[in-house]
Amino acid sequence: MPVRRKTGRPLSFDRDAALEQAMRLFWRHGYEATSLAALTRAMGVTPPSIYAAFGDKKGLFLEAVARYLARPLTPAEIIARAPTAREAARGLIEGAAVAFTGADTPPGCLLASSAIACSAEAADVRDELAAIRRGVEESLRARIEQGVRDGELAADADAETLAAYVTTVIQGMSTLARDGATREKLTRVAEFAMLAWPSAWEGAASRSA
Q1: Where are the domains of the chain?
Q2: pLDDT per residue as tens digits for the range 176-192
Q3: Of 14, 16, 29, 97, which is the most exposed, with the fewest CB atoms less than 10 Å away?
C-alpha cells in the first residue's frame, strides 16, 4: 500500500524538478530497467522522500507518465483541433516524428518503450500504459467515424482499422527513433504513411469498379 505523506510537513526538494528528472529516466530506460537507486541519484532525493512524495516507484512512474502526456499539444488536442480525420492522423504521425527526436529528450515514446520492457511482474503497469494508448486510438477512431458521417471518407471506410494503422505507424516510429533514426527519416516515413490514407473519392471509385 502506498505510504501516505504526513500533512503539514513540507517537501525538502523541488517536486516538479525531481519529477522531470524521473520522467526522463523512465523515458530513456523504461519502467522496470529504471532502478530506485538511479531515480534517487537523478532526482537528488532519498528513497524515503520518494515514498513520502509519490507513494512508491509505480506511483512515481504514473505521475511521470501524466507529466509526459501533459506536454504542449497532446494527442487528444491534436485530434480535437484537426479540421478533418485525415489531418488528425497526419498531426499525430508528424507530431510523433518531432516528439520522438527531440534534441533535449530521450528518443522514442515513453509509453511504448516502457510497455515493451515490462515483465509479467509489472503487468499492471503494462496494462495501464496499454489503456492510455487505446484511449488515443479510440479518440482517433471516433474522429474517423465523424469523417465518414461528414462525407470526408467513404461510407464503408473501416475506422477501427485506420485508427489501428496510425497507432502501428507511430509505435514503429518510436522503435526507429530509439534505434537512432533522425527526424528527417521519421518525417519521410510519416509522409509515406499518409499516402495510404483513403478518401471519399477512392471509396466511390472502388465501388464502381
Answers
A1: 15-68, 72-202
A2: 999 999 999 999 999 99
A3: 16
Q: What is the rounded CA–CA span in Å between residue 68 and residue 192?
A: 27
* Residue 11 near residue 49 (C-beta atoms within 8 A): yes
Question: What nine digits make up the cell of 63?
Answer: 505521475
pLDDT, average across residues 8-34: 84
Contacts of 8 (CB under 8 A, 6+ apart): none
Please state, in angstroms and rounded to a whole number, the distance separating the CA atoms of residues 51 and 48. Answer: 5
CATH of 15-68, one of 3.50.50.60, 3.40.50.150, 1.10.10.60, 1.20.1070.10: 1.10.10.60
In the chain, % of residues over pLDDT 70: 87
User: Could you tell me how far CA 86 lies from the centroid of its own chain?
Assistant: 19
Distance in angstroms (rounded) separating the CA atoms of residues 143 and 86: 9
pLDDT of residue 92: 97
Q: pTM to 2 decimals? A: 0.84
CA atoms of 200 and 195, how far apart (whole Å):
14
Does domain 72-202 fall under CATH 1.10.357.10? My reply is yes
